[in-house]
Each structure stands twice: as C-alpha cells, then as structure tokens.
Here is the input.
Amino acid sequence: MDMEMNDDLGATIDRLAAAASLLEQTVERLGEKIAAAELKLAATNEKLTELEAHAATAATAAPRADAGARKTLPSAMATLLAKQGVAVDSLGPASIEAGSLDAALSSLSLEQRIAVKAQLMRAGLLS
Here is the structure.
C-alpha cells in the first residue's frame, strides 16, 4: 500500500509540476502582451500630444480670409434688392453683373449701394 501511495503521490507531484509550468508560460505570455500594450499606449499618447499641439497651433493661427464669409444673403438685403427690381431667388454664385446692379441701385445713396455690393460680395453673388 505504501508503494501505491507513493505512486499516487508521484503522479500528483507530476501533475502539479505540469500545472506550474503552464502557469509560468501563461504569466510570460501575459507579461509580453502587457509590454506590447504599454508600447502601443505610449505611441498613442505621443500621437495624441502631437495632435493636441497641432490643434492648439491651428487654433491660434490667423483664421482664413474666407472662413467667416457669409454664404447667404440676409433677408433685409434680399428685400431691398427685390424693391429695386433685382430677383434674388434665381441668382447663382457670381451671377450679378456690376453694371446692371449699378443701374438697378441708382436710386439708392452711395452708402447704401456700397453696403448692398459688400453684402452681395460676401454672399458670393457678385464677382
């Protein structure tokens, strides 16, 4: 019986040794995966820092000249043009000729004509 117990004990020790070996391998692979993840995280943090610096630089840079340009005509300006006989609804980009606009706006004061032309230019309707 002692021999049988020794055999059982030996088999148990062998199984425990195999399990310990598998655990060591698992810990090594887990360590490698953690190291790879840390490298990726460091690279991602570096890229994020670069992007934040770039965004901060872009935010402080002078805005483009056309960044705030109005792309539509204010309703008051459209009404004023309609009263002068210029149909605004059918206008496409840069479709108003300066000479024909001057004729249509001849009854307005100089300041009003300048304001109308400035609004049309900002809206992209006057070249």
Observations:
- The mean pLDDT is 79.
